[in-house]
Every structure is written in C-alpha cells, then in structure tokens.
Amino acid sequence: HSSYLGLREDKKPEAVVIETETPVAIAAPTERSGITISHRERVIFAEGKLTKGQLADYYEIVAPIMLPWAGSRPISLVRCPQGRS
Q1: Is residue 19 within a helix (H) or strand (E), and if so which, with residue range?
Q2: Quick one: CA dihedral 23, 26, 29, 30, positive or negative?
Q3: What pLDDT digit, counting tens, does each position of 14-50 carry?
C-alpha cells in the first residue's frame, strides 16, 4: 500500500504528468524456468477451476511484461490452505 511521505523535491510540479496506457506485445510462452510447483493439479480458485499449475504457467508467460513494473515493489503473499472463506 502506498503511504504519503511528503512532497517530492526531485521534480518540479510541471514535470509530473498523468501516465497513459501503452499497448504491449502479446505474451508468448517461453522456456520453462525449471521451478518445481508442488501439486500442480490442486484447484486454488474453485469458481473458475484454476489450478496451481495453470497459475504458475500464467505468471511465467506474463513475467517479462510484469516484472519491470512489479519487480522493484513489495508484493505480499497470503497463504490460505483451507480456502479463502
């Protein structure tokens, strides 16, 4: 979560602009990373019948697009072995 630390002193107010969305190339599967995922067949989202393996495969595909943005930011992981409810 963001937190207010004060006004920026490294930029003039005129230099701060609203970011615009830019299209990215279609993500294509790459070589396997070699990371082992235990219980790839375990369903983790019952609504969509999404498995751990499918989620891992998705992250592997989008990693080249996502990591430049998320790689230097804190990301938390909450384990819910008994389900979200």
Answers
A1: none
A2: negative
A3: 888 888 888 877 666 666 677 788 999 999 888 888 9
Confidence check: pLDDT of 3 > 70: yes
pTM beyond 0.85, yes or no: no
Identity at 52, one-letter amino acid code: K
Span 54-78, mean pLDDT?
Answer: 81
Residue 37 contacts residue 52 (beta carbons within 8 Å): yes
Q: How many CA atoms lie within 13 A of 64 on its CB side?
A: 10
Residue 78 tokens, joined? 């909450």
What kind and span of H or E run contains 67?
Answer: helix 52-70
Measured distance CA(52)–CA(42) in Å, rounded: 6
Specify the amino acid at residue 23.
P
Nearest to 44 by CA among 29, 55, 28: 55
For the chain, the maximum distance between any two Cα atoms, rounded to a whole number of angstroms, is 52
